Amino acid sequence: MKALHKFLFVAFSIGLLLACSNSQDEILSGKLKSANLGADKSSEVKMVTVPFKATFTVWRALPPGTGECEPGSARETMMMKGSGQMAHLGQIKEIYMTFCVISDGSYSFVEPGKFVAANGDELYFIGEGQVLPYTGDNVEYQAQFNDEFSFIGGTGRFEGASGSAKTNAYVHAGSTDNEGDDPFYTDFFITDGTITLKKGN
To answer: How far is Cα 116 from Cα 95, in angstroms, rounded to an integer?
Structure first.
């Protein structure tokens, strides 16, 4: 009888060990399949900061004196559009910016400006500052400004973008009627900005 008890006890123990082993194998297999073992697969978005460099030109999109930022004020609405290139980020198919300018040359955006990439992705930016007399030796320019643009998101690869860049901009005042062969325009040479994007964008 004692021998039978010992036999049953040994058989039960072996069965229990096999069951535990199978259970551990299933848990390990599940972890491998879900890639939870040996790597962090958290859903946290990875961001990367890269240099932002751009060269572009904008022209008046409205005739001078068109529109006011505030009815009855001395502020004039300036709407500009243009195109150019962004280093590392490709062609700027279109650029839009609208801001208020007052008589002392100070300006501020009335709505976010936007760079539109060749594939249609948009990068939004805002800024304010002051236009000053030009101090260089290029006869094409009459004014300049070097204020900060701040990036505030966008669409596509620019979704969630942040960062800033100095404008380094030069203004050609053009003819008084802004028509013909001598239009008003501003050249931008941004060389010292940074932009933070989702990794892989």
So the answer is: 6
β-pair type (47-60, 185-198):
antiparallel
Cα→Cα distances 91→122, 126, 179, Å? 12, 20, 27
What does the block give as tokens for 78?
């300036």
The predicted model scores a pTM of 0.73
CA distance 128 to 125: 11
Amino acid found at 110: V
Q: Structurally, how many domains does the chain consist of?
A: 2
**Site of tokens 């939004």:** 124
**Residue 38 pLDDT level (bands cut at 50, 70, 90):** very low
User: Could you tell me the two tokens for 51?
Assistant: 């240099």
pLDDT tens, residue by residue, 50-106: 999 999 999 988 776 566 676 555 667 888 999 999 887 789 999 999 988 888 889
Amino acid at 78: M
CATH number at residue 127: 2.40.160
For residues 152 and 67, state if they share a domain: yes
